[in-house]
Amino acid sequence: MRPAQRSHHETLALRQQLIGSSCKLFFSHDPVKIVKAKGQYMYDENGRQYLDCINNVAHVGHCHPDVVKAAHEQNQLLNTNSRYLHDNLVDYAKRLSETLPEKLCTFYFLNSGSEANDLALRMARQYTKHEDVIVLDHAYHGHLTSLIDISPYKFQNLEGQKEWVHVAPVPDTYRGLYREDHEDSVTAYANEVENIIEQAHKKGRKIAAFFAESLPSVGGQIIPPAGYFQKVAEHVRKAGGVFIADEIQVGFGRVGKHFWAFQLQGEDFIPDIVTMGKPIGNGHPLACVATTKQIAEAFAATGVEYFNTFGGNPVSCAIGLAVLDVIEKEHLQAHATEVGNFLMKLFKELKTKHLIIGDVRGSGLFIGVDLIKDQAERTPATAEAEYLITRLKEEYILLSTDGPGRNVLKFKPPMCFNMEDAKLVVDTIDRLLTGTTDQKTVESDTGSLRCISFCTTGVMQSP
Amino acid sequence: MRPAQRSHHETLALRQQLIGSSCKLFFSHDPVKIVKAKGQYMYDENGRQYLDCINNVAHVGHCHPDVVKAAHEQNQLLNTNSRYLHDNLVDYAKRLSETLPEKLCTFYFLNSGSEANDLALRMARQYTKHEDVIVLDHAYHGHLTSLIDISPYKFQNLEGQKEWVHVAPVPDTYRGLYREDHEDSVTAYANEVENIIEQAHKKGRKIAAFFAESLPSVGGQIIPPAGYFQKVAEHVRKAGGVFIADEIQVGFGRVGKHFWAFQLQGEDFIPDIVTMGKPIGNGHPLACVATTKQIAEAFAATGVEYFNTFGGNPVSCAIGLAVLDVIEKEHLQAHATEVGNFLMKLFKELKTKHLIIGDVRGSGLFIGVDLIKDQAERTPATAEAEYLITRLKEEYILLSTDGPGRNVLKFKPPMCFNMEDAKLVVDTIDRLLTGTTDQKTVESDTGSLRCISFCTTGVMQSP
């Protein structure tokens, strides 16, 4: 019934004709057509192999055979809603519970991180009977109406900030309000939240939740200083609010040392609600909210049913279980630590050579390389980052940028990304920064090599 | 890694321990454990076969081999986001566009009907620059924060009606404000909407959208009189608003005569936005919004990207295409007309025998059987309906109720539901209504047989 494979030109033309133009393409001036993928590699219609440094959804590797097999076996047997008893649902909840602090023992399954964050918001409000939400600046929590409201990254371009939303500074010790030279950035950043709460209270407003990614991603691949969440949680809970950790981009072992990124803050920190998405199903639409008995009970006390048509169906749960199995079986957490450390080491070495590299930060395979125009002001090297990304694509390496300055190279590859891949990327970036024949370079005031001739193809941020 | 199949008791215990109690089970006092399904049949852990009269998600039949095959083939090849060009995305949009009026030519793919309705709402507001929404009473449009606000079925039990929401009476000519004896129920119901708009304007409010299921389902399996949508659309568009047809439960040929339920209103009616979900992927989390170029362009004009991580991935689109193929190949639309007409004919015959049957209405395999206590008042026979559903389950027939009175037996089976299935259900209901040894019956004032002894197990409405 379907036509044979369309030409690149034809696919693009049909896309422009039929798909809403709000849905953007990577490299919109010269988009890539991908027809196949395996592990950390993607292949275009001409069989060219691309190294994928950015797809954190294909968590255990594109088209992992164990995940594909689990989906197929369950698809042949049963795929129905969660109003019937099924082992996959409870087995999956049980397995997830084993990765979390004991307190987070009640689960809800959904189809996307956005659905999870929306539910978390509803729960926080139901439990606290408060309305207001504190978020971090530049945060992105999803595409739904309720989430655009709590996403400064989005609402700043739309109708603006709602009266029930409060924006706290990102605990970014490199480019933020309090930096690495501050004597106690943890307390200073947490005090900002305390101050927001006080101001809100003065206006008669009440805090339902502090809502943050455990590691702010769109915000610029930020690693909040350890202890920050504990102090924030103290302030927020004192105000009757809850702490929601958005693990949609950063959970499932990506940070290496821990299974969940919030655990980087220390063992004494436990969020009240955790949301999961993206990598959870290796591409299958799946998401989860985990919370405490108390919050779950308050949510149920309204008597209103929560029904999610596809959420928690046997196929989704089989896939979720298979992803957990692969992470364990292939020791992907340890692998992320090893490869991530190696990649950061290489970039830190490169930093001594190219002053455009201002900061290298990360944990496991969640890494940001912050490009700057000058050492003093740390001005984001936006155009240079864009140029680099575009040139890398020509070298068949898919990388992207993040941060309000769009100057942070973000690494969040499939977890099977290996040492050779790391070396290839860093070597290529070294070569591109060193200057090749097709770019003019100038000696900047601080001595760093900067690209002043760059393409302006539409590279965009991607959560 | 996983335990062997758990006992019914163990699965239930783990579910109660791990899954939020807001997520309800069918027949919660004696839930069914389903381990397998095929076509219109489901099987429990003891191999008992149930006839499924309610799962409108397993649209072309549970575990349809063509759909399973399409998923598996694509899962092995590639599953990534829609920021790369891919044929499945454009092929699928093209195929869907062929089922719709030409004007509805721009597509967005998502993971759930709720996501689709939320996007439709955002678009309507962006396009009209208005805020308010008119919905039908008892409507249910999804589980998200923004959708509970426009779902009287839900918000009546929660914090109540927002100032930007207006509730119009359901165009129900059997139990509604204007009935079959009204000389012009179409105009009368549409005038109610006109009146709401006038009242809103007096308060300085502006209408963004009229948002309705093409056939109100949770509202009680209602068939709005033909011509109603045209008149409503006229009023709403005059006020600068748009018409959103929610086809999540009722689209994809279910109504038999047409592919979309809004087409029952007549060829001269075209919504501005159509939302699709549930049956679209035969259980796979998939949804779609179709709209006009104008609305899509207004939505894009904000410059804010719309990115849905899983939406429109090659696997989801392959599955969506396979579902369309099966509907066509197996002539399921014609089949729905034939079997649906037969089922309604049988129920209409039964109506002459059992006065508890007040109304039989429907189109294709979307059918409601309205049970009443008395002919004069048409009082909903809520308890009787619940009893019937519970007894049917004991006869291995899965049926459910809908409507504010929970008295409407709703048929929305997989589209392969056949004549024998129809006969079996009606014969069984006949037998149960006629009275068996395990129920006491009384002659009601209007002569109908009513069950006065019934179980009170938790049967619930399900959208």
From TrEMBL, chains A, B:
UniProt entry keywords in alphabetical sequence: Lyase, Pyridoxal phosphate
Highest taxon, organism lineage: Eukaryota
Pfam families: Aminotran_3
PROSITE patterns: AA_TRANSFER_CLASS_3
Cofactor: pyridoxal 5'-phosphate
Classification via InterPro entries: Aminotrans_3, Aminotrans_3_PPA_site, PyrdxlP-dep_Trfase, PyrdxlP-dep_Trfase_major, PyrdxlP-dep_Trfase_small
Cellular component terms per the entry's GO annotation: mitochondrion
A GO term, aspect molecular function: lyase activity
Family statement drawn from the similarity comment of this UniProt entry: Belongs to the class-III pyridoxal-phosphate-dependent aminotransferase family.
Name the record gives this protein: 5-phosphohydroxy-L-lysine phospho-lyase
Naturally occurring in which organism (per UniProt): Anser brachyrhynchus
Name of the encoding gene: PHYKPL
